[in-house]
Specification:
The complex is a heterodimer of chains A (71) and B (476). Chain A is mainly α and 71 residues long. Chain A is 55% helix and 0% strand. Chain A has a domain of 36 residues. The N and C termini of chain B lie far apart (57 Å). The chains are: A mainly alpha (71), B mainly alpha (476).
Chain lengths: 71, 476
């Protein structure tokens, strides 16, 4: 139960970070290749999501234990 | 040259389709679900190739042109979140499918709730909202062929030819052929989009220089709100919710949750999905933004042609041909999956339900193949008079299917769910969507959000308010 709540918080936190409207008014700064810097932040968020999905799948995903080997 | 490249691609695709046919057996499980033995590598590619459609090549670039980089934010991360649904919905659907032998989503929903009415409603919604999306693929294919042949191949004739070709390998090998061709098509989409960005960037003096020029010409394309303040915070929130609830409800995606050989295969797909969205989605948006440098002033549906226009203008013919083949792969990999998913639903949940119960699995395969042809013709008929722009069509289909998400989650996880509560939830949701489209609801009823948000809220509330007092005894 604690694990479920923890992972819900992790994914909800990432969702909230993707709706960062409090920073929308800031001037647009460009990063490498002339792409807006906030684009790179979204790429980082997606990389973090991939890691979270992997760790969740390895450690807390109930379905992998339901009567089958994980392979 | 271009025709040779297209011919080579089609030949390879057909050969792979035939390979799938030769490895198959004439059973419903094998034809519709590849015997539930798809491994992680093929599953990942079939999921991305199925989900990334004509909209990925033409619609994304068109949206990049109209709206700017902000479109990347909602499309990329919103789609990446679908990886969470692979676990939450996909894992349980896979397990129940194996335990009970389900082949279609309505079968699962109907059997789990014991309600033929809910099953029929669920399948009706899936069919009604997938057919317009199905028609999107030949529209895009026709555009492309017309563009790269400089009008030699009329738009509709190109759509007919490609659809007929695709129907051939779906007809032959079912899910196994579709999944195997998806691997080739998925790899091509990724590699050729990367090639398009690099070549167009070089032709414009370098990626950085192209971006700086575009920003100098139209700074709004680089802002968070998009050109013309396209995104408000509430609209942004709405889109972030839209993809994660709608994508798993597409029948061609939902059906794929039945096919993984192991939970590990599903985990690999969930993990890799955000990586692909992070990288792959930037390409077409960037090309759309650069489009203003060469083709300023495009409006509406004309902007959806910006990617082939840029390639034809700036890239060598052979590369334009290759990239256009990548776009064709995107069309075909989505449409073949839609055809197969819809034909399986109509075969299993309509034909066997309303003709006789003892339909053999071999007959189901024959009926499924025939329905594939019928559905392809229906899609082409709609494509003959394409409505509105791509974005409008896709948004309609996504919202209509998203209405099924609260029911699906409730059936999978909430033992107090009632079938009539789910029926009410779906009817209310679709009724509100229709009312919204016909402008029967008071202005401002969605409070600045896309209609999806209040609709999903009411659908969920309906299910919760109609729940049993005590959990159902039947174990799932």
């Amino acid at each position: 139960m604690r694990s479920s709540a923890t992972w819900s918080t992790v994914f909800l936190g990432m969702f909230i970070l993707s709706i960062d409207v409090w920073r929308w008014g800031a001037p647009v700064a460009l990063g490498p290749l002339g792409v807006p810097r906030w684009i790179y932040e979204f790429m980082g968020l997606q990389a973090a999501l991939a890691v979270a999905l992997y760790v969740f799948g390895r450690s807390a995903w109930r379905e992998r234990h339901d009567g089958e080997r994980d392979a | 040259m271009i025709y040779g490249i297209i011919a080579a691609y089609l030949t390879v695709t057909l050969a792979i389709g035939v390979l799938g046919y030769r490895r198959g057996t004439p059973t419903a499980d094998d034809y519709f679900l590849a015997d539930r033995r798809i491994g992680g590598f093929v599953l990942f590619f079939t999921l991305i190739a199925t989900n990334f459609s004509a909209f990925f090549f033409l619609g994304f670039a068109g949206a990049g042109y109209r709206v700017g980089y902000s479109y990347y934010g909602i499309m990329a991360f919103g789609t990446a979140l679908v990886g969470v649904a692979f676990y939450v919905i996909g894992g349980r659907v896979r397990r129940l499918g194996r335990r009970h032998g389900y082949i279609t989503p309505p079968e699962l929903i109907g059997h789990q709730t014991g309600s033929p009415t809910l099953k029929l409603l669920f399948l009706t919604v899936m069919v009604v909202f997938t057919v317009p999306y199905l028609a999107l693929q030949p529209i895009g294919a026709g555009y492309l062929l017309s563009q790269i042949s400089h009008g030699t191949i009329p738009q509709f004739a190109g759509a007919v030819g490609l659809t007929a070709f695709m129907v051939a390998y779906v007809f032959l090998g079912g899910m196994r052929s579709v999944a195997l061709t998806d691997v080739v098509q998925g790899v091509m989409m990724f590699a050729l989009m990367l090639a398009a960005v690099l070549v167009l960037g070089a032709a414009l003096g370098g990626i950085r220089e192209a971006n700086l020029a575009a920003q100098s010409q139209m700074p709004e394309l680089f802002s968070r709100t998009g050109r013309g303040g396209f995104f408000t915070p509430r609209i942004w929130f709405s889109y972030m919710v839209l993809w994660v609830v709608a994508v798993p409800m597409f029948p061609q995606v939902f059906t794929r949750f039945f096919v993984p050989r192991s939970p590990r295969a599903l985990r690999a797909s969930a993990t890799l999905y955000p990586i692909v969205t992070a990288t792959l989605f930037l390409g077409p948006i960037m090309i759309g933004v650069w489009g203003h440098l060469r083709f300023p002033g495009l409006e509406g549906i004309a902007a959806d042609r910006i990617l082939p226009m840029m390639m034809t203008e700036l890239a060598p013919d052979w590369l334009t041909g290759l990239v256009m083949v990548g776009a064709l792969a995107a069309f075909m990999s989505t449409m073949d999956s839609q055809l197969l998913a819809l034909s399986s639903i109509l075969t299993r949940d309509v034909y066997t339900r309303f003709t006789r119960r003892d339909v053999s699995t071999a007959e189901q395969v024959r009926v499924g193949r025939a329905l594939t042809v019928v559905l392809a013709i229906l899609g082409l008929a709609i494509a003959y008079h394409p409505p509105a722009t791509f974005v409008a069509i896709v948004t309609q289909a996504f919202t209509g299917l998203a209405v099924l998400a609260p029911t699906t989650l409730a059936v999978l996880y909430w033992p107090r769910t009632t079938a009539w509560g789910c029926v009410a939830s779906i009817l209310i949701g679709e009724g509100l969507l229709l009312g919204s489209r016909l402008q029967l609801l008071p202005p401002g009823w969605s409070m600045g959000f896309l209609p999806l948000v209040p609709i999903l809220t009411l659908c969920t509330a309906t299910i919760l308010l109609t729940g049993r007092r005590h959990p159902a005894r039947e174990p799932r």
